[in-house]
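Changelog-adjacent note: as of this version, every example in the card shows the full chain rather than a window. The one below runs 208 residues end to end.
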Amino acid sequence: MDRTNWRDVPMPPQIAALPREKRGFPVPYVANWLPRGGQRDEHIDIRTNIEYGLHDACSCKPGDPEWEPDLGQMCSPRQRRCMKHKRCQICTIKLEPPYLLIGSPKGDTDTWYTEPPVCTSCAAYALRVCPGLITNQRPVAVWACTGYDITDQRLFALPDGEPIVLRTEGDSPEVRSGCLTYFMAHPLDGEPVLADQWLHTFEQKGQT
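Full-length structure tokens:
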């Protein structure tokens, strides 16, 4: 995708209302936050409950003046909230079908997304300005679907102590012994459309 200076791209109203990082770039709802000058592992908050078993509760403080956004990383509870309740990961608006998932154009039964769905105008804005999308060396696609299945992404420790992230199903003790980080979504129907093609169609419809 072509690189565009984000300052030259008009912001939809719901994005203009988001918190900003120090350059003025809007911060998505799902973004992780860090203490100023801190490290990513300093506010990991591992808990356990009946619903999730072992899980990352995260203790980040979005909008706190002593904290700063860690763009490119997602807050685990906020990610799961958007996935479960079908809310836009950027502006939090409640979504209706079709749900838009941005990621791999692979398009088969093994395609799972960790990025929650987005609304149409936020999708168009993100595809124009998000560094993780416009500088990605791999193709990026938009998948519109009427629904999606959800499963867990959990963190386990190998015998040598090294961590491994796995997609898991079920709620057996073995599964729940891994730390739930994110939910993963698999589209139930539809097919991926390459980002440039999707944006072209969006612009042809006069949706800016």
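Structural remarks: The chain is about 20% helix and 30% strand.
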